[in-house]
Amino acid sequence: MASSYCCSRLLLQSQSSRLMLRFSPFLATPPTPSSLSFSSNCHVSSSAQATLQQQHEQQPLPQSSQLVALEYADLNLSYNLDLGHVRIRQHVNPLSSSFSVPAQVPDWNHAFADPTLPLMVDIGCGSGRFLMWLAKRTPKERNFLGLEIRERIVKRAESWAKDLALDNILFLFANATISFKQLVESYPGPLVLVSVLCPDPHFKKKHHKRRVLQKPLVGAIVDNLMPGGQVFIQSDVIEMALDMRNQFDEVKTLKHIEVLDPAMLCDSEGWLLSNPMAIRTEREIHAEHEGAKIYRRLYQKQM
Ligand SMILES: C[S@@+](CC[C@H](N)C(=O)[O-])C[C@H]1O[C@@H](n2cnc3c(N)ncnc32)[C@H](O)[C@@H]1O
């Protein structure tokens, strides 16, 4: 799944970050430091450029979509689904009237084999593969709800979940900004984890109101989370990560996990050094493949 902000960030990428791409951990044989020489503005000598070029030609980088398929290989999904003729749109405007109607609350008894299990909600779940991977690993322990505003990919996710015979996952076509509260308030079990992972950044100031995480949604997450429950946020766009961080840092009942568990290591600016979920999202894989840093925070609600 490519996104337009991926393209704009790529355009802005400096020569140094283009080089990072070639140092990707996915490279079978990374270049040795001695084969390169950097000056302060990351100029690369022509012989180093030639070496890199040669290595690149010998071992072309895997496409990031192949890396995504690799990450979720365990799921063994079919990619020949008939989704009709309507193409999957890259973006929608969540403020348009067609997305202003709250999603219908499902019959939870019908949605999950056991609707009293602890619930994880992934806001803006995209293709849903990240959530399916988690659902497959914790049957009978946890239910998973993916909220996504693009209807076509919800249909594909539903079809995949059906193929996998998962009875602990539900995908809903929903504008999470307006539907989350009603949905989780009606859920019979406890809400234990909410994730907002690589949300669309909507860079222009006049479009910030299109961002999924608005104040009422933050309130609904915090109010409905059980004590000890967690909120996981991440983005490869620092501006977006800071926007989410500022909103959750303000909440008195939430503590960032490093305060509670010193084993969760952060960098000097308080971003988690690694992904605590044991699986990456698609956007995360694409971004890391481009050499981007992922900014993560994990909050826990006070007991
Ligand atoms: C950049 S993608 C990230 C998808 C996934 N979380 C990942 O990390 O790969 C952002 C997703 O959020 C969805 N989205 C945007 N606004 C939304 C909203 N108001 N409600 C639900 N989903 C939304 C988009 O359609 C898109 O699939």
UniProtKB/TrEMBL annotation:
Methyltransferase as UniProt keyword: yes
Catalytic activity: guanosine(46) in tRNA + S-adenosyl-L-methionine = N(7)-methylguanosine(46) in tRNA + S-adenosyl-L-homocysteine
UniProt entry keywords in alphabetical sequence: Methyltransferase, S-adenosyl-L-methionine, Transferase, tRNA processing
The UniProt record lists the keyword Flavoprotein: no
Highest taxon, organism lineage: Eukaryota
InterPro entries, alphabetized: SAM-dependent_MTases_sf, tRNA_(Gua-N-7)_MeTrfase_Trmb
EC assignment: 2.1.1.33
GO molecular function, one term: tRNA (guanine(46)-N7)-methyltransferase activity
Gene Ontology biological-process annotations: RNA (guanine-N7)-methylation; tRNA methylation
Top-level class of the enzyme under EC nomenclature: transferase
One GO location term (cellular component): tRNA methyltransferase complex
Protein name: tRNA (guanine(46)-N(7))-methyltransferase
Source species: Glycine max (Soybean)
